[in-house]
Amino acid sequence: MGDKKGKLTTVSCVTIMMGAMIGSAIFSLSGVTYAMAGPAHILTWIAAAVILLIYGLIAAELACMYPVSGGLYVYPREILGKTRAAKEFWGWTSAWAFLNTGIFGAAFSAIYVSTYLGRILPKVNEHMVLAAVIACAACGLLNIFNISFVGKVNLILVVSISVILLIYSGFGFTAIDSANFAPFFTQGYAGGAGFVSAIPNAMLAYGGIVTLVSVSGDIHEPKKTIPKAMILSIALTTVLYLLVIGTTVGMIGTEEFTANPSLQYYPLYAAIDKAFPGVGWLGVLISLSALLALLTTLLVLIMSVANTIAAAAQTGFLPAFLGKYNAKTKTPVASITLSTGLVTVIACFPQFVTEITSTGAVAMVVTVALLSYTLLAARKQMKSSREDFHLPGGRMLPVTVVVVLLLFLLLQPIKAIILCAGWFLVGYVIYGIAIWKGSAAE
Q1: Domain residues for 189?
Q2: What is the pLDDT along the chain (442 residues), one digit of tens a residue?
Q3: Count of the separate structural domains present in the chain
Q4: Cross-referenced InterPro entries, in alphabetical order (predicted)?
Q5: Are 296 and 135 in contact (CB under 8 A)?
Q6: Is residue 116 part of a domain?
Q7: Of 44, 54, 336, which Cα lies nearest the Cα of 205?
Q8: Would 3 be classed as within a structural domain?
């Protein structure tokens, strides 16, 4: 990470991370948090941004201390494990938690492709599952042939979606009803503590904060650039999110979402439809922007899941053929096919979208808490140089993050915790089989 010859500047890094963060969440999950917490979900998104910024900076410090490819999923394996079995346990736990968030997040995006497309072409609403399957298949094929939104295309996407969200906020500002903000803390169905229990859902929107760690070798002066870019990108993204969220609260009351739960997943369109029923083009613009964001998120998550599966296969945890990369396309075809299939299967059950969302949120809490604990352990084992980036505050921030996130788990729906526990149970069965086979082979 000490190489100063990387091509990516601070501006490039900010663009990359904003592209990873400004996706489907603001067009969908903001409605979920609004229904849970009412107007107070504005605080939810601020708190989530702070937690994920700390998460990103923790990853940046680990990358300085332990510059190794595989980053977020290798750190727990190498730092927390003493024996081979222990190393594999922590590495697999981290990877398996990410797979939950990635697969469930991709399925969520696929499910709501038809929701926003249906705002433009109403008949699509009658074929929600079919639209999700087609979206998954299309994004899977794009990944297999290594066609992705990168470089200048990424910049155009970020700027376009940001401009549309600013247009939405500008129009919405003229229709704000201050009565929608009172009472501030008790309107959501989760009660006065709703703005706290909704934080894990909002955290999903900022997961792209760690994108740069995996490409640190391409960044100019990464030890300086990565922390600076993380702070700038999450600050700009949060300001944009707060403009959109605050405007939505002003245009449409919480009771609209609690009375009609389906509105939770297209809050921006619902707000525009209520405040400006005669301005059809604005609803179409929002729908097109949301559709683009959903498909982009789906594309990125399928590849992220596939790369994680491929890495696990290369270490012997999964069948070897899943870790092979095609010589022409340079992509793990089998892993992409598997990840696409898993996402597609889950997306075929839109009636369970609430469980999909909440389970992914619980897994995100586990991921962030585990990396925070990993940093605490790494500081005991390794000495970093003066040139390395250091998370300010010593042990205070990572310890606080671990404690707060564990408390968040107590506020999550029991069904989500049980489902997530079941997910990890399956993962540990796979772990046990892999360890047993490895021991038998030895």
Answers
A1: 10-437
A2: 444 555 778 888 888 788 778 877 888 889 999 999 999 999 999 999 999 999 988 888 887 777 665 566 778 888 888 887 888 899 899 889 989 988 998 998 898 888 888 878 888 878 889 999 999 999 999 889 876 655 566 677 778 888 999 999 999 999 999 999 999 998 988 888 889 989 998 998 888 787 777 666 667 777 788 888 889 999 999 999 999 999 999 999 999 988 888 888 889 989 998 888 877 888 888 888 888 888 888 888 888 888 888 888 887 778 999 999 988 888 899 999 999 999 999 999 988 888 888 898 899 888 888 999 999 998 888 766 666 778 888 788 889 888 888 888 888 889 999 999 999 999 999 989 888 887 655 5
A3: 1
A4: AA/rel_permease1, APC_superfamily
A5: no
A6: yes
A7: 44
A8: no
* Cβ-based burial of 314 (10 A; exposed 0-12, middle 13-18, buried ≥19): middle
Residue 2 in domain:
no
Of 389, 422, 426, 418, residue with least CA distance to 213:
389
Contact assessment for residue 242 and residue 66, using Cβ atoms and an 8 Å cutoff: no
Residue 288 inside a domain? The answer is yes
State the CATH number of the domain containing residue 249. Answer: 1.20.1740.10
pTM score, whole prediction: 0.85
